[in-house]
Specification:
The complex is a heterodimer of chains A (113) and B (112). Chain A contains no helices and eleven strands. By secondary structure, chain A is mainly β. In chain A, strands 2, 4, 5, 6, 9, 10 and 11 form a seven-stranded mixed β-sheet that branches. In chain A, strands 1-3-8-7 form a four-stranded antiparallel β-sheet, with no helix packed on it. In chain A, strand 7 and strand 8 form a beta hairpin. Chain B is globular. In chain B, the strands form three sheets. In chain B, strands 2, 5, 6, 10, 11 and 12 form a six-stranded mixed β-sheet that branches. A four-stranded antiparallel β-sheet of chain B has the order 3-9-8-7, with no helix packed on it. A two-stranded antiparallel sheet of chain B has the order 1-4. Classes of the chains: A mainly beta (113), B mainly beta (112). At the A-B interface, strand 5 and strand 10 of A face strand 5, strand 6 and strand 11 of B.
Amino acid sequence: DADVTQTPRNRITKTGKRIMLECSQTKGHDRMYWYRQDPGLGLRLIYYSFDVKDINKGEISDGYSVSRQAQAKFSLSLESAIPNQTALYFCATSRGLGTDTQYFGPGTRLTVL
Amino acid sequence: AQSVTQPDIHITVSEGASLELRCNYSYGATPYLFWYVQSPGQGLQLLLKYFSGDTLVQGIKGFEAEFKRSQSSFNLRKPSVHWSDAAEYFCAVQVGNTPLVFGKGTRLSVIA
């Protein structure tokens, strides 16, 4: 089984809808991250959490919110989706000690019409 | 401002040829340095990382990278490319306890 899982893998929605993307990990890591990937822009950090009680905004947090329900679960919400939020979204985890190797989920492809 | 630059958006090499992907960073302190690979339809996988010691780092799949402090560079190399190496490659840096910052990626195409 995969260490970092994301659901759904693909989602098509309409402008104005509320969307939740979920991430679960079995690696026992404290740190979790949400990124979005757009062609030519690489990966940009949306939010990150260093533990259950710690949530931090990343480079592009506007229009997004997150919830860290447990050490293993980190959800990303789009309260009112808009077309320019169409992207590939990745969740990642890391142990947070020393060099911070991140382990990535398979991604969620979100299309907002 | 802190930044990571991958100057090449797209590179095409012939199978069996050597490969070098460039990465430059702009940080006040020496960061931790990483290379990740993203195969089509997949998430990112760590190829290698540097945090101290020997400046030539060996990774998985026959890749290596060399840290050059004087040039603020961490270029990725492979002596002989295979068709399965076609993917997107991302350089990333980390300073202190902050999250990784990724470059915009270099897409590698391999031709016969």
